[in-house]
Amino acid sequence: MVTRRNFIITSAAAIAALTLDKKNILAAERSKPLGAGNPLQIPTEISGGQLTVGKTSIQILSGNQTDILSINAVYPPPTIRVKKGDSFSAHILNNLSDDVVIHWHGLHVPSAMDGHPMNAVKTGVTADINYSVINRAGTYFYHSHTDMMTAEQVYRGLAGMFIIDDDEDKALPLPRGEFEVPLMISDKLFDSNNQLVYSPTMDDMLRGWLGDTIMVNGTPDPFLDVAPTLYRFRIVNASNSRIYKIALSDNSEFTVISGDGGLLEAPVKTTSCFLANAERLDILIDFSKYQQGSSITLRSISFSTSDAPPPAPIPAQGAALDILRFDVTKTGDSKASIPAILSSIVKYLPADSKTTRTFGLTSSSVAHAINGKTFVMDRIDTHVPFNTLETWKFFNASEHIHPMHVHATQFQVLDRGGSAPTAPNDLGWKDTVMVNPFETVNVLVKFDAYDGVYLVHCHNLEHEDHGMMSNFMVDNGGSVKDTQTADTQLSVYPNPASDKTTITLLDTDRKKELFLFDTSGKVVLKEIIPDGLQTFQLNVSSLATGSYRVALGDRSAILTVIK
To answer: What is the C-alpha separation between 169 and 458, in angstroms, rounded?
Structure first.
């Protein structure tokens, strides 16, 4: 072989033969004939409007139809696509027999619109969502966030993509139109009647629910016909607990250009990249080196974990799996290229961090917890000052992977185990970070968009439903403190409220004045609390929609009023 190559290098004609030989070498071996499997579905696109949550039966596998949860009676749910600066409006009608609430994952939105479980929509009720789109361009998504039901509702279908465009992204020579493809990945388990199975055992709650069928955009065994040109794939890991290590079946390089919060500063070439639950990646794949009629497969390559495997034949966490086959059968040119520079990102400086908060992550057969606490709807665990840079330290004291998600902001990974981030999924702006067993990951975070009550939680959805979620309050004014004990927190429920809310008092709360402050610090209500009361009902019907600080002595809370 070496002798042949040495010989043909001396000849121009032979160089052309070598090029052809190289293409043949690079062409992936097909495990299935062209067209075998199912053509990849591409979700319809909308910009808002009516979002009706209900039950639908659709054809997923051959034979019986599958009962799923849907939005607007389609599965997968429509992709919402808007521009930065748009005003996004939606009307969520709940036609389920259970409560439901939708979270706009990765987006900066007012706390009352964020999709906190306390804002769940009852059966037959419509919730109006309105907010300005202030995030930069990127691949985001939306999904159920219903208390103790997030995992099952997402698994059964309540997750869709949310794409934001802006002028910076549009100005780059990236693939557009048919050459820009959304890929929402999930894994499912079906019974013999083609119905989705979701019946987690205690072991499943520890490791997370795993399926044996990989779905992309709701399509099992998918393939996509492509042309020999550059494509952009917007990828979301919408699985409950399965983590993917993205690669191509021939180990070719691909290019990562975007993460959770939009474009990276520069493209990163790699042969593999982790994609934890709720993380996103935009990647470029150049199919020009593959011959017509050849195939290449997007895969998850194997990696080791300490999780006990699920019952056979369900693939274990870290097992090698095919995701999507690309068949090079089309013609066309995206007329795109890979820019040397993508964007400019202002880097947070560790020296500017005002404090460090530690979030200890523990797991057991009883529950998953943050700092020893499991989630309580109306308990605020942390108070965070508005527009102040902090270091958040996620320390995983368990043997399970925890993808930690922070609402209301995008952060930057400072270090992983003391080392600066190098993996593509740790670069740029982030809202979800994978924390490996017994690992510490530090992130730099600032909340400079909205105040109010938000969540930090594990995005392994079984872990989230099993307690690994915590309320924090972004505080826009006044003193700020961590709420480690009940006597520093004022209990206000319901919150948000439209008419009345109830203040729960301690025995030490005697003959004190209760104040309500608006965001400018102005007192808008003042009440005298009589001696001996255990609860006090506060009438907020006269207040406009917004966030207010409720203060009683040295205890306080943020109350959100909605109309």
So the answer is: 30
DSSP symbol at 179: G
**Cβ burial 503-533 (10 Å sphere, 16+ → b, else e):** bbbeeebeebebbbbbeeeeebbebebeeee
| pLDDT score of 5 | 34
DSSP-derived 3-state class of residue 8: helix
Structure tokens at 537: 């009902």
C-alpha span between 441 and 421 (Å, rounded): 10
pLDDT for 507 equals: 61
Task: Count Cα neighbours of 289 within 13 Å in the Cβ-side half-sphere.
Answer: 16
DSSP 310: P
- pTM, rounded to two decimals: 0.82
Determine the 3-state secondary structure of 167 from DSSP: helix
Sheet holding 244-248, edge to edge: 38-39, 222-226, 321-328, 295-300, 244-248, 272-275
Q: What is the pLDDT of residue 492?
A: 79
Q: Residue 346 and residue 261: Cα distance in Å, rounded?
A: 13
Distant-in-sequence, close-in-space partners of 511: CB < 8 Å, separation ≥ 6: 528, 529, 530, 531
Distances (CA, A) of 52 to 126, 238, 397, 450, 470: 9, 20, 41, 27, 29
Residue type, 196: L
pLDDT at 206: 94
Least Cα distance to 261 among 105, 436, 444 occurs for 105
pLDDT < 50: residue spans in the chain = 1-30, 478-488
> How far is the C-alpha of 343 from the C-alpha of 340, rounded, in Å?
10
For 111, phi then psi, to 5°, come to -60, -35
In this structure, are strands 79-83 and 45-46 parallel, antiparallel, or unpaired? parallel
